[in-house]
Amino acid sequence: MSFHGQPNTFVSEVHLKISNLTKSVQFYTDIIGLQILSRSEKLASLTADGVNTLVVLEEIDNAIANTGRNTGLYHIALLLPNRPQLANTLYHLLETRYPLQGASDHLVSEAIYLADPDGNGIEIYADRPEETWKKYDGTIEMATNPLNAEDLLAQRDTESFVSLPPETIMGHIHLQVSSIKESEEFYQALGFYAVNRYGLQALFISTGGYHHHIGLNTWNSAGASAPSENEVGLKTFTVKFPNEEARNLAINNLKTSGAEIRQKENQISTFDPSKNLILLAI
């Protein structure tokens, strides 16, 4: 998991707007296997290791359903440390009978897909060893093939599933955006570069040679506007820089490109061209 630490820049935390905190907390703890780090009347922070927040859930007033046609979240992606842990998680999900939306072999990783009670997309995945990735002139080969679930489940250990392993991290975030071109220019200013693209409709970007820290697509959102404030979905996500110097460089690049930078106390934030709110942390 060296792609999610020094000297790389990566996504560390995602803040979601949801309609019912009690219902969502139960889902993320019982079904997904995260733990509560802190909780108030309208807000809950969830963790895998008891220290670092991965997901923040915020119950909003007068919540309305996500249409899926605006910009915002496509899915969050929780990265497990190895294949046996993914097998344990898949077996647990099958036991719960919670509906899965898909299961794929991406060559660089194996992934399970589902959605929370508000329809926020979730990927749970494990990477294949980097030495097995096929790289060509700065690109990394990826695909969406059917997952060999039988072979994966054969890697399961005999222990009962209690929670996600403490090594679980936020592997990446996948966003719906209005324009791939504008998004690519913006995220380059943050230090992310293309490693794979699918025409003009999808782009995968990273730092340090990872297969992607951020996915971008316009499959349902080309030219779309941002969702309303009371629509469930993405509120913010946090990009973590390796040091102050790297963050300052990104901020200067963003200012040069005309992006808005906000600072409130110790929190610095910006909006991408699709109005996704990003916290810039170190």
From TrEMBL:
Q: Give the InterPro entries listed for this entry.
A: Glyas_Bleomycin-R_OHBP_Dase, Glyas_Fos-R_dOase_dom, VOC_core
Give the highest taxon in the source lineage.
Answer: Bacteria
Its organism's taxonomic lineage begins at:
Bacteria, Bacillati, Bacillota, Bacilli, Bacillales
- SUPFAM superfamilies in the cross-refs: Glyoxalase/Bleomycin resistance protein/Dihydroxybiphenyl dioxygenase (SSF54593)
Name it. Glyoxalase
The record places domain VOC at: 10-127
